[in-house]
Amino acid sequence: MITVILPVRNEGSYIHAVLDAVLAQDYPIEQMEILVADGMSNDNTSEIIHEYQQKHGNIKLLDNPGRIVPTGMNIALRQARGDIVIRVDGHCVIAPNYVSNCVKHLTDD
């Protein structure tokens, strides 16, 4: 199991592309959980994430009342079930092989 953590705040303009890129990974989707720690966004970020949750059962939205990345990371890390944790920022559109490359580099001897 891999956990992808997205600490975000007010990413309504970008979150579609970010989530689409994470969901398009060549790593098996059933072995990935996606934790989005939202820093109390006051735009449409959480609504967009809720829409994705309706279609993708591996996305979980977490409230981050601290509003900053470090507290969001800590909240998500406490919830993470993955053996490997990968952070993706709210403006970051990752390549389709990003997760599999991270796993490969971390597990190669």
Topology (elements, then pairings):
Elements: E1 2-8, H1 15-23, E2 32-38, H2 45-55, E3 59-63, H3 69-79, E4 84-87, H4 98-107
Parallel strand pairs: 1-2, 1-4, 2-3
Could you characterize the architecture of this molecule?
It is a single chain. By secondary structure, this protein is of the alpha/beta class. It is built from 4 helices and 4 strands; from the N terminus they run βαβαβαβα. A 4-stranded parallel β-sheet has the order 3-2-1-4, with helices on both faces. The mean pLDDT is 96.
Task: Give a short overview.
With 109 residues, the chain is of the alpha/beta class. The protein contains four helices and four strands, in the order βαβαβαβα.
Distance between the termini: 19 Å
Anisotropy-based shape: globular
Instruction: Summarize model confidence as the mean pLDDT.
Output: 96
What is the strand content? 15-25%
Which strand order does the major sheet show?
A: 3-2-1-4
Name its key features.
109 residues; alpha/beta; four-stranded parallel beta sheet; 4 helices; globular
